[in-house]
């Protein structure tokens, strides 16, 4: 079939050209920056240094990662405060909805890419813990009259996390963001089942078939080659594993879209300047939202990477979209 | 050229220069990024009137909550000072020395100051006293924020000059950098420049002083600062960089500034 042939060709080419900056061969049809977006300024097809977008600016691909790194390095300390201020706290609802859609059971391994300050990982651990308690309560209700043996075994296993320990791995390319996340974990007293790893979404430092769930929340639009990130996601997931992506997307309602645009471009950089002292980083963030493909296009990209049963769900009228796919 | 850098390529005829290209889609976004500056001057950020208003309010609140956020005080000054800056610029233009400053655009930075030469100047000279002020109060002229939100290149320079002259003003007025000294300088600046940010600082600064200092401010320092602010020559019109050898008292007389009524020492820095 054409799709799988294309995938195979692309994988072979990617493996052979992995460490060369410029893809001299024109075989790899679509790259991250030319992913069908008609407004994308991708000047070269196969030859020459490739350029991509950085917000509304056009930069060489090699530059983009560095500049994105700089942006997040600058905003790391105030990242959470700014999220609350910019979204009026609604980002918490979005992340909670991601967890509800995920509905993780105890024993599941999560990889949160671009997880930076750990919001998804903390919620995951909390959810799994409450699931575990629920299961225990259910088990307790079903054994109405426990024997002394049962009671004593219960007491001895209470302190352990149980045989099904859930693990969350937070992976981020930016050390500052991870630092902030670790500080949060320390102050919350959360440490069991949590690890912090520095890594690039386009080249994850994990073996194949490792994780049950892969999430990336508000991070994938900052990746230079989105298709590579998707392929890496496919690789590290176990068969049956789920890919979930929370990202800003296109607002369908025109009235809401106007309001949203005005708010984004007038208010958010001002908030960035006043709260974080950094106008330009937040200008980049609102511009990068406009350059990201819309819901249907992104769904197509996820399918191209090899995921099945890809669906998306709009939150807040399309301001945010939750995409989900499975590795079979 | 690029050809040498890559293995087997031909750069075709797109007009891609070697430096980063700043191509902008015309969009509702008013912002520019800084790799090759697109505003009117390096560091300039274009803003709409709504954004300026939001910035003024936001920075005012932020500065009140945390007076150590000098960048917020700076932003407040830039967003509210348009008329005052025009007034200042016109005063500078009408003064021959001020006109020279507007054309030559000198900047006061550690890199442009010849510190060893200034240290060798006699006591009582402007340069020597300025250096002494910097040392006693542990300040440096390089800590001034760049101007970002003024939409006229000349006015942006006037604003920048005002910021850089602030330390020199401390020396001229003989005020240290503790709270009382800063408030006194703010009163002088408010009377001189008419910048709303100075006026705001002048009104709110005294709220953080204890009663004995408040008394000193209202009875002697304050009236002195206001009077001299009104009658002195425009302090932005002085080419300080060429007057390091001048005696400080002479310079004060030339500018029509009386010596301070109370001698404040830098040792009072910690206790407000």
UniProtKB/TrEMBL annotation, chain A:
The annotated region (Disordered) lies at 135-164
EC number(s) on file: 2.1.1.201
Kindly list the GO molecular function terms attached to this UniProt entry: 2-methoxy-6-polyprenyl-1,4-benzoquinol methyltransferase activity
Q: Provide the gene name from the record.
A: COQ5
Quaternary arrangement and interactors, per the entry?
Component of a multi-subunit COQ enzyme complex, composed of at least COQ3, COQ4, COQ5, COQ6, COQ7 and COQ9. Interacts with PYURF; the interaction is direct, stabilizes COQ5 protein and associates PYURF with COQ enzyme complex.
State the organism of origin: Dicentrarchus labrax (European seabass)
EC class of this enzyme? transferase
Sorted alphabetically, the Gene Ontology BP terms of this entry are:
methylation
- Pathway of this protein? Cofactor biosynthesis; ubiquinone biosynthesis
* Family membership noted in the UniProt record: Belongs to the class I-like SAM-binding methyltransferase superfamily. MenG/UbiE family.
Q: What is this protein called?
A: 2-methoxy-6-polyprenyl-1,4-benzoquinol methylase, mitochondrial
């Amino acid at each position: 079939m054409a799709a799988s042939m294309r995938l195979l060709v692309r994988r072979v080419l990617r493996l052979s050209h992995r460490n060369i900056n410029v893809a001299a061969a024109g075989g790899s049809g679509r790259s991250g920056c030319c992913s069908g977006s008609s407004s994308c300024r991708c000047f070269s097809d196969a030859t020459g240094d490739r350029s991509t977008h950085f917000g509304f600016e056009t930069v060489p691909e090699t530059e983009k990662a560095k500049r994105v790194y700089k942006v997040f390095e600058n905003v790391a300390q105030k990242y959470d405060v700014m999220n609350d201020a910019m979204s009026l706290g609604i980002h918490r609802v979005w992340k909670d909805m991601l967890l509800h859609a995920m509905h993780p059971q105890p024993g599941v391994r999560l990889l949160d890419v671009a997880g930076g300050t750990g919001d998804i990982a903390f919620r995951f651990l909390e959810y799994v813990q409450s699931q575990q308690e629920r299961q225990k309560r259910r088990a307790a209700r079903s054994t109405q009259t426990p024997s002394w043996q049962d009671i004593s075994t219960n007491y001895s296993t209470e302190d352990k996390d149980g045989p099904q320990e859930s693990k969350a791995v937070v992976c981020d390319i930016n050390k500052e963001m991870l630092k902030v996340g670790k500080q949060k974990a320390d102050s919350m007293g959360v440490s069991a089942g949590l690890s912090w790893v520095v890594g690039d979404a386009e080249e994850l430092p994990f073996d194949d078939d490792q994780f049950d769930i892969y999430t990336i929340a508000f991070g994938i639009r900052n990746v230079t080659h989105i298709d590579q990130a998707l392929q890496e996601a496919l690789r590290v997931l176990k068969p049956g594993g789920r890919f979930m992506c929370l990202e800003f997307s296109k607002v369908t309602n025109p009235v809401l879209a106007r309001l949203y645009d005005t708010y984004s471009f007038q208010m958010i950089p001002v908030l960035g300047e006043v709260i974080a002292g950094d106008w330009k980083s937040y200008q980049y963030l609102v511009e990068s939202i406009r350059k990201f493909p819309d819901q249907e296009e992104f769904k197509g990209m996820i399918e191209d990477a090899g995921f099945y049963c890809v669906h998306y769900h709009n939150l807040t009228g399309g301001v945010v979209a939750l995409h989900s796919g499975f590795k079979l | 050229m690029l050809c040498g850098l890559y293995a087997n390529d031909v750069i075709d005829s797109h007009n891609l220069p070697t430096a980063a290209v700043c191509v902008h889609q015309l969009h509702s976004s008013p912002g520019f990024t800084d790799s090759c500056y697109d505003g009117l001057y390096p560091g300039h950020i274009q803003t709409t009137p709504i954004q300026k208003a939001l910035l003024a309010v936001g920075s005012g609140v932020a500065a009140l909550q945390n007076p150590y956020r000098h960048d917020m005080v700076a932003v407040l000054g830039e967003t509210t000072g348009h008329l005052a800056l025009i007034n200042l610029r016109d005063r500078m233009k009408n003064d021959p020395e001020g006109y020279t400053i507007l054309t030559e655009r000198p900047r006061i930075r550690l890199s442009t100051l010849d510190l060893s030469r200034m240290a060798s100047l006699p006591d009582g000279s402007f340069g020597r006293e300025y250096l002494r002020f910097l040392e006693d109060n542990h300040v440096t002229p390089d800590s001034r924020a760049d101007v970002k939100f003024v939409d006229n290149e000349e006015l942006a320079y006037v604003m920048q000059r005002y910021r850089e002259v602030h330390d020199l003003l401390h020396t001229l007025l003989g005020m240290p950098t503790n709270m009382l000294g800063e408030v006194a300088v703010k009163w002088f600046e408010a009377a001189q420049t008419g910048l709303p940010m100075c006026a705001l600082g002048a009104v709110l600064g005294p709220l953080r002083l204890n009663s004995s200092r408040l008394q000193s401010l209202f009875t002697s320092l304050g009236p002195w600062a206001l009077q001299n602010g009104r009658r002195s020559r425009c302090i932005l019109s002085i080419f300080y960089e060429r007057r390091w050898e001048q005696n400080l008292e002479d310079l004060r007389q030339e500018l029509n500034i009386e010596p301070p009524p109370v001698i404040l020492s830098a040792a009072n820095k910690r206790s407000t």
